[in-house]
Amino acid sequence: MKKVRVRFAPSPTGPLHIGGVRTALYNYLFAKQNGGDFILRIEDTDQTRFVPGAEEYIIEAFQWLGIKFDEGVGIGGPFGPYKQSERKPMYKQYADFLIENGWAYYAFDTPEALDAKRKEAEAQKKTFQYDATTRGGLCNSIALSKEEVEAKLAAGDPFVVRFKYPADLDITVHDLIRGDVTINSNLLDDKVLYKSDGMPTYHLANIVDDHTMEISHVIRGEEWLPSAPLHVMLYKAFGWEAPQFAHLPLLLKPDGNGKLSKRDGDRLGFPVFPLQWTDPKSGDVSSGYRESGYLPEAVINMLALLGWNPGTEQEMMDLDTLVKLFSIENISKSGAKFNLEKAKWFNHQYIQLASPERLISMFEKELIKHDVAAEPAYLQYVADLMKERIHFIPEFWEQTSYFFVAPQEYDPQAVKKRWKPGTAEHLRKMMNIIESVQPFDKETAHNQVMEYVQGNELNMGAIMNSFRIALVGAAKGPDLFEIISAIGVGETASRIARAIQTIEP
RNA sequence: GCUGGAUUCGUCUAGUUGGCCCAGGACGUCAGGUUUUCAUCCUGAAAAUCGGGGGUUCGAAUCCCCCAUCCAGUACCA
Questions:
Q1: Residue A462 pLDDT more than 90?
Q2: Is the CB of A49 under 7 A from strand B?
Q3: Can you name the residues that pair with A273 across neighbouring β-strands?
Q4: Which fold has domain A262-353?
């Protein structure tokens, strides 16, 4: 059996879309499961859409995700170059081969002439199609005489090469996910294979590269399904064995229908890109999963389950497990809507699973952003206490800042609800009790304070929350005596004093 | 418009050869519990007449036919 070789082939036209990441992930899982190779090819045949930095972005994104390529741009390999612009010289001969064998022809029609044809057809509520019925009336090597064609070529007139579909032929694409898909060639138009700038189009470059790189399986987005018949015909024209095809369902926007797009993320508050991206032209910044505080394994797990499942009820799967369990048969046929809540849940799960070392390292990085430093042992203590409340990495600061710095303000709603006349006096007395516990012990302190609260028949909820407001700044957080134990009795006393002064001036 | 694809709880989905499905799990939602608060956590509940309509069958989410809706493609873009 042929060795499994799959590729991910993005265009460097901007940041990598999360749907593209899923496509790459499925390719990777399939390759690794079958002991095959996973290749990164850059499809930059459209020079007008090239965006600087996009290629580097793609490589960095996969590095972050832990998805490794065996060959390709940035790695090298025996089938290089892996960038289509660098393969430019080799495509011409394949276009020529097609022309020589009657599978393609030269077309000299200007874009303006074709536009006019399209508008004309549109006016009659029809669609203009460059095909067997219209070829004869257009400016190409089928309609023109041999001499005219040669004269045009000799004169250096711009031309494209178009594929010549045989008339009335049923073309069947066997898709691993959808089964056989058949379409009649009369409904297809003669696609441009080779552009007037001397570059192949996607279709030609794709087939030539997949063949010469010995790709065994083409796993790509569903948007390619309509052009799959062309690809099948191209393999046939060249006399090459076609790879197996699998067209993945689309990733849909969470509200309504339709493909997930860049704008949806900005609108709905979740990233559409793995890494943050700054548009080099406009300067617009799009958020990324990494910068938003997602763990790469959570992103991978969530993405894997958007359109696939292991056939069991297992949901938590790391990359290695995914490699073992993945199967093309279990890929669903319909598009999947992105679900922010589930993504959040996954991230929470993976934060709970993170090793203490990793937790501390993430924690430290967040603190540095706020110019705060702390001993690893202290970080460890706070992390153990707080990690189950954290969903995203930035919360390592947002949820824990009071362990490092005194609150700068007090939640007015909480104060209004919990801070009553007499509160200050009770806090002072409780503080005295806590200070009298020598050496400090959180359980002893807790018990003695409880005695005071009960002995004075105080409202537990009110009094403890006012204490909490003083330490935290809001009515939230873990056990009070854990906080006191962490920040120290001295700091506790000064926070109490400060709260009283601020709230009851 | 044309062509192709898709259609099970709000969402992701299980359901592959018709009966074990008056449809299971997860996220979310709601209720209760735990807690001094918030979050977490635990327990429970509601939630899909399987897009609709016809068949076939003792029996259909699963097979057949028709319809509807949604999506994709329809560029010298990928």
A1: no
A2: yes
A3: A288
A4: Glutamyl-tRNA Synthetase; domain 2 (1.10.1160)
Rounded alpha-carbon distances, angstroms, from residue A485 to A189, A351, A396, A460, A492: 75, 24, 19, 20, 9
Q: What's the DSSP call for residue A402? A: G
Nucleotides of B under 7 A from a protein CB: 1-8, 10-16, 24-28, 35-41, 70-78
The tens digit of pLDDT for each residue in A378-409 reads 999 999 999 999 999 999 999 999 999 999 99
Can you tell me the ipTM of this complex?
A: 0.94
Spell out which residues of A between 196 and 225 contact strand B, using CB within 7 Å.
196-197, 199, 201-202, 222-225
Distance CA A446 to C1' B45 in A:
37
Return the domain boundaries, chain A.
Answer: 5-73+205-251, 88-194, 262-353, 355-393, 406-503
Give residue A185's identity as a one-letter amino acid code: S
What is the CA A320 to C1' B63 distance in angstroms?
39
pLDDT of residue A461: 86
Which positions 165-184 on chain A have a beta carbon less than 7 angstroms from any atom of strand B? 178-179, 181-183
Read off the pTM.
0.94
Q: Decide if A442 is catalytic.
A: no
For A246, the enclosing helix (H) or strand (E) is strand A244-248
pLDDT at residue A293, rounded to an integer: 96
Residue A177 structure tokens: 């996910």
Task: Work out the number of other CB atoms within 10 angstroms of the CB of residue A108.
Answer: 20
Residue A45 Cβ under 7 A from any strand B atom: yes
Q: Would you say domain A406-503 falls under CATH 1.10.10.350?
A: yes
Q: Are strands A251-252 and A244-248 parallel, antiparallel or unpaired?
A: unpaired
Options 2.60.40.10, 1.10.150.20, 3.30.428.10, 3.90.800.10; CATH of A88-194: 3.90.800.10
A198 CB burial (10 A radius; 0-12, 13-18, 19+): exposed
Q: Write the class of the CATH domain A5-73+205-251.
A: alpha beta
